[in-house]
Amino acid sequence: MTAEIDFPSLNSSRPLLEALHGEGYTILRRFLPSDLMQEIGAESDRIYEQGLQHHATYRDRNLLFEILDDPQAGRRVVLQVHWMAWISPLFERLRRDARYLKVLEPFLGQDIKQIAHQLHWKPPGAKYTFYRYHQDARFRNQAATRNFLDGNVTTGLAIDRQTAANGALRVIPRSHRRGYLGLSEDGTIMTGSTPDDELRKVGLDPASAVTCEMEPGDLLLWTLYTVHGSAANLSEHDRRFLINSYVRAGDSDRGEWAFRGGVSTPLGEEPQICKYEQLRERPGPFYIEPSWTEEAQASQSPPRA
Ligand SMILES: O=C(O)CCC(=O)C(=O)O
Q1: Residue-wise over 241-259: b if at least 16 C-beta within 10 A, else e?
Q2: 305 alpha carbon to ligand 1 midpoint, in Å?
Q3: pTM value?
């Protein structure tokens, strides 16, 4: 079965359903046109510059800038921003664009909420630009989410060309049929590495990993159980990737509306709990000094006798 589909010529939902259900991922080629991708690229750069104004990771309700003084690059970098729709009309419209509904409706119906809205950078020369193999089910509230496999779809839009050299996403085909495997749970997903043996231990073949090389405007879909990760950016160019993850509204007590009865639905006055569970008790704004990096972990270890 081909896991690739040309979006402009898609006239039936069948290939989509077969690819995601069968393989656990699929790439939609030419999902968005190049003029819109230029705008998205320029807006991403604007948001990056805004992020650099913060000396450390900054949260204001669901909006989060993940900032790091990267030890290898020797400069401040922005690794992720979450829920930039709150500060960007372009991203606010894009996350609920009709083209997303066309892709999501066959899986999720017409009442769809959004749990993740994230822009990832892999700044050239930086140390922390890789993601260990994991399943996104780990980052969902277990008690507030139902139907993990069929009620959720995650999308990743290539803003830059995604290549093996700049750390394109890698997926293990058909791994979504294996349930939750507990990969990389000994730490964060941006430190250490996932040795091939860890995959073999849970019955997955590391050689079966597919590197999802994409052109700007291509869209990758995967499930909450699809094992995926990505290598470090070893190129001289950034790799910007826009992640939007959706859930059938009836299957989640979390999320912002994206489509209600098939109608594109803007953000309301008040943010809803998505992935940040302490939204009500600790809305911010506040800064978070990094505690997850190898350097921070080393400086926290008790001195040796
Ligand atoms: O940006 C990447 O390469 C990793 C994204 C990812 O694995 C995730 O968001 O779950």
Answers
A1: bbbbbbbbbebbebbbbbb
A2: 39
A3: 0.96
